[in-house]
Amino acid sequence: MSVDTATVKRVANLARIAVTEDDVSRMTGQLNAILGFVEQLNEVNVEGVEPMTSVTPMAMKKRQDVVTDGDKVADIVANAPTTEENFFVVPKVVE
Length: 95
What we know:
The structure is a single chain. The protein is built from three helices and two strands. The chain has helices at 5-14, 21-42, 73-77; strands spanning 83-84, 87-88. Its EC number is 6.3.5.-. GO terms for molecular function: asparaginyl-tRNA synthase (glutamine-hydrolyzing) activity; glutaminyl-tRNA synthase (glutamine-hydrolyzing) activity. Keywords: ATP-binding, Ligase, Nucleotide-binding, Protein biosynthesis.
């Protein structure tokens, strides 16, 4: 995949990054170099290689999927300026 100047300008616009024409030409080369490296990674044979969670083998810490701090509705809405039926009431901002 090759990146052209129009693509760099579009990506910069989507990312809300201001770029000059000099930056566009420099970034085009940099993005093409990055994508070239990613394409090299696609050539690596990873058949039979297990996915890693870390560079050192370790068991993932897991917790039980249980509710541990429920029934605190009154505590949660206690500091709200206005509530209604245990919901926060906010001013209407859209007509």
